[in-house]
């Protein structure tokens, strides 16, 4: 059978970022099995059709509730992929990161998106839920793990009824902060066997981020925006391999291996 085809949906709207480099690195690890094509959705209005096997939709800047004009096309694509999976044995696999995760929550009608009281930025502790403890994509982690977070918005108030409608499960939540009244935001959702999304950045790599954040203008920018204390804390976590489970960032590779195995097991043509 031929190589699998992956659509990388770039949501960065041409804003410089580390996400695309990290994702391309990860996709380099499966280059024998998977070819990928980039679609600059917000910058160039490029949207893949439904012919791809796997879709990886990135993080990006801005308010996930704002209408920029590309949303309906994106939602139509998700609708077609979701319906495809309901009626075909050869499935479509979709991974949503950060901004895309927020867009997916809008598409599926889960919870409420809102602006955080302050920007979340750094290496944050994430908690698995009971469902998360059973999730194969998270199996290498303990009950809590560190992940890179970078966002101004959050997903709150997802109800069990909303989850049940599509058969989704919340698999990670923000850390518990007993000293604040803030609600804990949702950090990862398994929408289905094939659709998975994280509010954090599972593509982030410590090896690449240390030299990136550690020099100006990034270093200066972080200190100006968040203070020296937060900068030092971020670097300390990035440099401590025992705390930094994302050093080997296993979530997206697990997703890709799962998709590759399922798709190569099945002979084409389908159904
Ligand atoms: N890094 C991201 O993708 C951020 C997502 C979104 N723009 C937010 O501010 O919450």
Automatic annotation (TrEMBL):
Organism lineage string: Bacteria, Pseudomonadati, Bacteroidota, Cytophagia, Cytophagales
InterPro entries reported for this sequence: Class_I_gatase-like (IPR029062), GATASE (IPR017926)
Protein name: GMP synthase
SUPFAM superfamilies listed in its UniProt record: Class I glutamine amidotransferase-like
Alphabetized Pfam families for the sequence: GATase
Segments crossing the lipid bilayer: none
Organism name: Flammeovirga pectinis
Domain Glutamine amidotransferase positions: 49-205
């Amino acid at each position: 059978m031929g190589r699998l085809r992956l659509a990388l949906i770039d949501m960065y709207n041409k804003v410089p970022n580390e996400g695309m480099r990290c994702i391309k690195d990860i996709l380099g690890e499966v280059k024998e099995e998977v070819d990928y094509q980039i679609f600059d959705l917000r910058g160039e209005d490029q949207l893949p059709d439904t012919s791809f096997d796997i879709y990886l939709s990135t993080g990006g800047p801005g308010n996930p509730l704002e209408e920029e004009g590309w949303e309906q096309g994106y939602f139509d694509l998700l609708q077609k992929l979701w319906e495809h999976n309901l009626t075909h044995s050869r499935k479509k696999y979709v991974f949503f990161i950060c901004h895309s995760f927020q867009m997916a929550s809008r598409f599926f009608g889960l919870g409420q998106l809102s602006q955080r009281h302050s920007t979340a930025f750094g290496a944050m502790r994430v908690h698995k839920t009971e469902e998360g403890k059973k999730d194969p994509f998270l199996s290498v982690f303990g009950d809590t793990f560190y992940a890179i977070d970078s966002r101004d918005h959050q997903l709150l108030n997802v109800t069990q009824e909303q989850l049940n409608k599509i058969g989704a499960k919340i698999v990670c939540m923000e850390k518990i902060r007993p000293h604040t009244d803030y609600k804990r935001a949702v950090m990862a959702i398994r929408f289905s066997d094939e659709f998975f999304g994280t509010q954090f950045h599972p593509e982030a790599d410590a090896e690449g981020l240390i030299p990136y954040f550690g020099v100006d203008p990034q270093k200066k920018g972080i200190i100006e925006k968040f203070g020296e204390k937060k900068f030092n804390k971020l670097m300390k976590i990035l440099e401590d391999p025992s705390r930094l489970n994302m050093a080997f960032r296993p979530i997206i590779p697990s997703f890709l291996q799962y998709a590759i195995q399922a798709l190569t097991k099945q002979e084409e043509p389908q159904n």
